[in-house]
Amino acid sequence: MDDSSNFLSDVSTDTEVSEKRISRQRPQDLALMALARPLRMAQILGWRLLRKRKRARTQLERAIAGLPFAQHRWNKEAGVADTELVVETSHAGRSSLMAVHLHVSSGYSRKEIAAAVQSALKQSVESAGIFVTQGSGAAYEMSPNPEITLIQGIYQTRLEAISACIALAKRRGIQWLVPFDPSSRLSRYSLASYSAHLLRQEQARNAPVLYGDEIGLGRLRATPAMWLKPDWDGRMALSQDYLSSACALAIEPASQLLLGDETQLPHSLFELVLRLCEGSAASHVGRVTSHTEPEAWREKGGETLDAVRRVTRSKAETVEAGPFGTVKVIYETPTPLPKVSVVVATRDRVELLRTCVDGVLHATNYANLELVVADNESVEPETLDYMETIANDPRVKVVRWPHPFNYSAINNFAVRQSSGEYICLLNNDIEVLEPNWLMAMMREAVRPGVGAVGARLLYPDRTIQHAGVAIGIGNAAGHAHRGLPEKEPGFFAQTLIARGASAVTAACLVVARQHFDSVGGLDESELAVAYNDVDFCLKLRAKGLQNIYSPEATLIHYESKSRGLDFAPEHLDRYLKELAAFQKRWSTMRVVDPWHHPRFDRSSEIYCV
């Protein structure tokens, strides 16, 4: 378990190279810091004088990242580093041949088309070709240019045009094609970024698709609207098209797919990307490779919905439009429904327990469940009377754990007393809001290859308490988007879409019994109270299973009301020991969560740079 390299990565090579270049600019940054934020600079120097060098360095890096136009400078520095690498290796014949395809259809102005063409012509490294195709009604008059190949003919769809370009690229021995349209622009360093990524990351050479990050078109602002994307996530790809904007398609697999069964041919670029990635993962390049309209990510909903419906038609019960151009894939559940054992650990606080139990037994529409209440030395008469009353329900079993509080041990014990094929760990301070919560989680949990499934949890004031866990936040683990209002989308709608996650909280978690047992349940020895759920999820991922965040299951969580906070003086020593054990086991001081971009501030649970 000490080796987390199989699914948690150190800061990527792409990022490291650029950070070295940026570090050479540090004197300029220090001067700008002194001018723009003198008080902050004085504070950092104070830490340095007090020999708090690590703290001073961390504060300095965080402050520099927030300087005006810091992201623009970083993008340029990264692009220059990538360009230098590609140029150095091109002489040795190691660079990949990469072409560009611009499809011009009706509805675009001459100005937009000209700007898109210029973005292809002004790449920092030479392309293997710039292919231009036209759709019906397109008004494009190309000036003679030896770098541009205008493919003759009128193509009724963009996908037909891409197919023609892939066939031409294959005949010319080109390995990759980057398709884009006049609504976007290629970053000056797009081709360099993709090529350098292939040189640095050996496994990327087998990927069918490469994709990069995006930045708002024409928005030269101190803090640009950047879509810093997660690594490949097959579940998220069915919720949102975060891949196809100026992505790079591997010619060989794309050619094979497009020459296959005509009844299975894709109808759009996004569907082509999804089908290419059904057997192999796309590879994320941590660079800005395209400039798009600021709201473009949420305006492709119709095309995205159609693509997902076609790809999942035999797997999903329904596929419907979600908020912000996203998609809701609602999977089928087996018949008959698997039995779920809902495990609730508790001690006194009957007002919390009553709300939780009533929600499970009387406000949940999942028919095949049992409720196992694990009592940890309750003494209040009202609580004991209540547990005696609910034990009369044939769906309820009350078990006793007469030992000092150990969240892991209590839940492991209760699971052993249960009989369901699936386990739902549920805190006693959870309030059910709508009856479909367990059904929604089970729709994900029964899918092949799924480990733990977590819910969207809200504080009583209807702000987000949990929308997935990201490793490395605070050099340990943090709850993504904590504190955002319930209806806020978060970073590019990530609070509202079903997606993968490194971990989910055991305050409301569903997992197959066989998977729970396969990793030995929760860690009773080193993680008795804190981080045991995150550790459990990471062990599932180490076995090749994917953990899922499901916003369709939304509940209220009165966090830690029944046991108190970890930072209370009486708990602090225990918490620090568990934190140290967790950090050592999973190297959280240095790893980067696949869903948390290396450019994000690791001190914040709100995704920002």
Q: Any overview of this molecule?
A:
- It is a single chain.
- With 609 residues, this protein is an alpha/beta fold.
- The chain is 35% helix and 22% strand.
- It has 19 helices and 25 strands.
- Strands 13, 14, 15, 16, 17, 18, 19, 22, 23 and 24 form a ten-stranded mixed β-sheet that branches. Strands 2, 3, 4, 5, 6, 7, 8, 9 and 10 form a nine-stranded mixed β-sheet that branches.
- Helix 2 (26-36) crosses helix 3 (38-49), helix 7 (158-171) crosses helix 10 (251-258) and helix 11 (269-276) runs parallel beside helix 12.
- The radius of gyration is 26 Å and the shape is globular.
> Over all CA atoms, what is the radius of gyration?
26 Å
Helix content: 25-40%
Structural class: alpha/beta
Annotation field: number of helices: 19
How would you sum up the major sheet?
Answer: 10 strands, mixed
Poorly predicted tracts of residues: 1-5, 16-25
Distance between the ends: 31 Å
Coarse shape: globular
Number of strands: 25
On the 0-100 scale, what is the average pLDDT? 88
The amount of beta strand, in percent, is: 15-25%
